[in-house]
Amino acid sequence: MDKRAIARNQEIEAAVADVRQIEKKDGVTRASLEKIKQRLMRLAARQELFTSADYPPPQPGSKRNSCLYRVSEDTDHRFALYVNSSDGNYGTPAHNHTTWAVIVGVSGEELNRFYDRVDSGVKEKGNAVVKQGTGVAFMPEDLHSIHIEAPLINFHMYGLALEELHQREYYKAEERAWKVFPPHSDIREARS
């Protein structure tokens, strides 16, 4: 293993250990998620360890324009950390996570739109651009959508791994209906 890979693994392990301690001490609250976000932004500041050469986006012509690399996950599927790598032109509908979630920028920009659930579906209530030095945090029931126009790398961390989230909902606007997200189909194993 080269020096960069060793450094990357050490930084990931230290960050995830800190996140575990934050949740253990403070529980899952907006204040604790802010602490988790701040810790993950420190990890993301190590941009030289998380490049598109390390985590390439999907090949041109792939079904998806974005993929997730699992870089850490506990044996009980908790504290799952992913590197999201995209070549752009990617988005999601409004959705929840059913667990806490934090997204922080490494490189590039990701627009997050925030929503309230209303009788007619969803109503946008704000937005934020995730880029180097910024992030967003979500309680299990919070709703957001992702919009990526150009290449990026960022971190997505969840209280429980994506494959374990069987009741995640998204709003299918053309049907004006809530649906359950199908399992994520492009998670690549990247743990050392």
Helix and strand arrangement:
Layout: H1 3-26, H2 30-44, E1 66-72, E2 78-86, E3 90-91, E4 101-107, E5 110-118, E6 121-130, E7 135-138, E8 143-148, E9 152-160, E10 169-172, E11 177-180, E12 187-189
Parallel strand pairs: 1-12
Antiparallel strand pairs: 1-2, 2-9, 3-8, 4-7, 4-9, 5-6, 5-8, 10-11
Helix pairs in contact: 1-2
How many domains? The number is 1
User: Helix coverage percent of residues?
Assistant: 10-25%
Computed CA radius of gyration, to the nearest angstrom: 16 Å
The averaged pLDDT comes out at 95
Total count of helical runs of at least 4 residues: 2
The proportion of residues in beta strands is: 35-45%
> How would you sum up the global shape?
globular
Distance between the termini: 9 Å
Which segments are poorly predicted (pLDDT under 50) over 5 or more consecutive residues? none
CATH superfamily: Jelly Rolls
Can you walk through the features of this model?
By secondary structure, the protein is α+β, with helices and mostly antiparallel strands. It has a single domain (3-189), classed as Sandwich (Jelly Rolls), CATH 2.60.120.10. The protein has 2 helices and 12 strands; from the N terminus they run ααββββββββββββ. The chain has helices at residues 3-26, 30-44, and strands at residues 66-72, 78-86, 90-91, 101-107, 110-118, 121-130, 135-138, 143-148, 152-160, 169-172, 177-180, 187-189. The protein has a 6-stranded mixed sheet, covered by helices on one side. β10 and β11 form a beta hairpin. α1 (3-26) packs antiparallel against α2 (30-44). It is globular and about 55 Å long.
